[in-house]
Amino acid sequence: MKDGNTTISAETLRDVEHKQKFIKSMSRKMILETKIQKLSKSIFYLVLAATIVYSVHHYIMYDHFFHIHII
Predict the structure, then answer these.
(1) With contact defined as beta carbons under 8 Å apart, do 65 and 58 qualify?
(2) CA 24 – CA 36 distance, rounded (Å)
(3) Is the pLDDT confidence value at 1 over 70?
(4) What global pTM score does this model have?
(5) Contact, 58 vs 48, CB < 8 A?
(6) What is 22-54 written as a DSSP string?
(7) Which secondary-structure segment (H or E) carries 60?
(8) Cα–Cα distance measured from residue 71 to residue 67, given in angstroms and rounded to the nearest whole number
(9) pLDDT band at 66 (very low <50, low <70, confident <90, very high)
(10) Residue 47 backbone dihedrals phi, psi, to 5 degrees
(11) Number of CB atoms found within 10 A of residue 23's CB
């Protein structure tokens, strides 16, 4: 490809195209990893909230947090 005084070889164009494809694939992977991390964090907080709600409910209903049975 010739543009004025600049000459770009076919090999250079292939390298640039390969780098662009690599960058696109890496950005897709990073976006997916970010979504998975956000989902994992949301699930963690949901489970934590459910545990707290259950503990408070259990305390209100039975006047203690845990069942401790000593034989």
Answers:
(1) yes
(2) 18
(3) no
(4) 0.59
(5) no
(6) HHHHHHHHHHHHHHHHHHHHHHHHHHHHHHHHH
(7) helix 10-62
(8) 13
(9) low
(10) -65, -40
(11) 10
